[in-house]
Description:
It is a single chain. This protein is of the alpha/beta class. It has one domain (about 10-255): 3-Layer(aba) Sandwich (Rossmann fold), CATH 3.40.50.300. The chain has 9 helices and 8 strands. Strands 3-4-2-5-1-6-7-8 form an 8-stranded mixed beta sheet, with helices on both faces. Helix 1 crosses helix 9 (about 245-255) and helix 4 (about 85-100) crosses helix 5 (about 120-135). The structure holds adenosine-5'-triphosphate and magnesium ion (MG). Adenosine-5'-triphosphate (ATP) binds near residues 18, 21, 45, 200 and 228.
Amino acid sequence: xxxxxxxxxxxxxxxxxxxxxxxxxxxxxxxxxxxxxxxxxxxxxxxxxxxxxxxxxxxxxxxxxxxxxxxxxxxxxxxxxxxxxxxxxxxxxxxxxxxxxxxxxxxxxxxxxxxxxxxxxxxxxxxxxxxxxxxxxxxxxxxxxxxxxxxxxxxxxxxxxxxxxxxxxxxxxxxxxxxxxxxxxxxxxxxxxxxxxxxxxxxxxxxxxxxxxxxxxxxxxxxxxxxxxxxxxxxxxxxxxxxxxxxxxxxxxxxxxxxx
Length: 260
Ligand SMILES: Nc1ncnc2c1ncn2[C@@H]1O[C@H](COP(=O)(O)OP(=O)(O)OP(=O)(O)O)[C@@H](O)[C@H]1O
Ligand SMILES: [Mg+2]
């Protein structure tokens, strides 16, 4: 794999149930449709919602690989500097195996987030593997776990753009404001841009009211979309959403604003 390309990494975060997975899936759909871009979709939510939204079957999560390695460590296999490259090669192979390849994008599911403290060696090796794997792609899109916790996790360390999704509720806006504070102001993430996407909006008036209450930069807003409701109802992957649907158009506009 070519490891010299410039990778743009975008993480999508926010409160539970606000539309993170839908927004990420639509971004993957639109970027894949352009053709010519190597796209890696990372499902960082343990419930593996992005894989479902993209209609991809996950064979193995990073957590599965971690558990296999931990079992080897328990059996007495030691991983120190003398065999580190051997382990890296093995992990590389395993991680590629875990990638669900679609014709237009690859998907890597993280599974359960790493437990801190124990097996740091295994976690650190996996972090390196994910990093080098990402470098082979033009765009990496991460569908985050709900809430604030994850911005401190390793998978989020190399993010360029943090897309904060909220519905129009005060709770949703509070959560994204806290994420921005932890990730950006406290420098937990090295991201260059943080912006807000308002989802399930009824009209522009709602957007303006929220903008009066927050200092977050608006990347765009997505209306309540009956297509998404319908696809959700039938369990149809959002990849098949018509280009003319309101949410599809709105996400296209958001990608333009992000200059992706
Ligand atoms: N613009 C929209 N119009 C209509 N329904 C929407 C819209 N955006 C999201 N939904 C619906 O809202 C629900 C939550 O969306 P989604 O799963 O994308 O949120 P999430 O933030 O990823 O949730 P979780 O925190 O559980 O991972 C889903 O049923 C989805 O179909
Ligand atoms: Mg989700």
